UniProtKB/TrEMBL annotation:
<keyword id="KW-0732">Signal</keyword>
<dbReference type="Pfam" id="PF13628">
    <property type="entry name" value="DUF4142"/>
</dbReference>
<feature type="signal peptide">
    <location>
        <begin position="1"/>
        <end position="28"/>
    </location>
</feature>
<protein>
    <submittedName>
        <fullName>DUF4142 domain-containing protein</fullName>
    </submittedName>
</protein>
<feature type="domain" description="DUF4142">
    <location>
        <begin position="35"/>
        <end position="169"/>
    </location>
</feature>
<dbReference type="InterPro" id="IPR025419">
    <property type="entry name" value="DUF4142"/>
</dbReference>
<dbReference type="InterPro" id="IPR012347">
    <property type="entry name" value="Ferritin-like"/>
</dbReference>
């Protein structure tokens, strides 16, 4: 039995164990530097936004090019999200929260009432903007991030996002011309 009187009763032991369990998630969330945690969460939010916006495009658009781009976004960002989660675990980081930011929620809500060519144009404009922003973040972390595993993820993400930027531009050009 413990010599510490605070740990002698089963109720106190249970309270201590529960306290450790309650604090463990908070402690786990603080692993990694602020820079790394911010990058991981930002990339996760970007992936989630891209997937949700693409699902909306598949439901709303009848344009073959828009639908093809949207399907690619779902496939590629689902794969990137898996890579991010697996790499975060490998690096000893807490898994990223599957959520979107407030700005991203506003963009998604903005798509809600649109149809036809107006939907297509707005969706593609949002995609171009979101991908350029995500590309800048991925390139910055790839160049100066403090976690080697996450720098590798950032390099992979930057390559994929750069390809998405190149793909969205001509589709947006067609949609804007309609």
């Amino acid at each position: 039995m413990s010599k510490d009187p605070a740990l002698r009763t089963p109720a106190r032991l249970l309270a201590l164990a529960l306290g450790v369990c309650v604090l463990s998630p908070a402690i786990a969330q603080e692993t990694g530097s602020r820079q790394t945690r911010d990058f991981v969460q930002s990339l996760a939010q970007s992936d989630t936004f891209e997937i949700l916006a693409a699902q909306s495009a598949l439901a709303q658009s009848s344009d073959r090019d828009v639908r093809g781009f949207a399907q690619m976004m779902i496939t590629d960002h689902t794969a990137m999200d898996r890579l991010l989660s697996d790499s975060a675990a490998k690096a000893g980081l807490a898994p990223p929260v599957k959520a979107i930011g407030a700005d991203q929620a506003l963009l998604l809500n903005g798509l809600g009432g649109l149809t036809g060519p107006e939907f297509d144009k707005t969706y593609l404009q949002q995609q171009a903007l979101a991908h350029r922003s995500a590309l800048a973040e991925a390139q910055t972390y790839a160049a100066s991030g403090d976690n080697a595993v996450m720098r590798s993820v950032a390099k992979t993400a930057a390559q994929a996002i750069s390809a998405h930027v190149a793909m969205v531009e001509p589709v947006l050009g067609k949609a804007a011309a309609r």
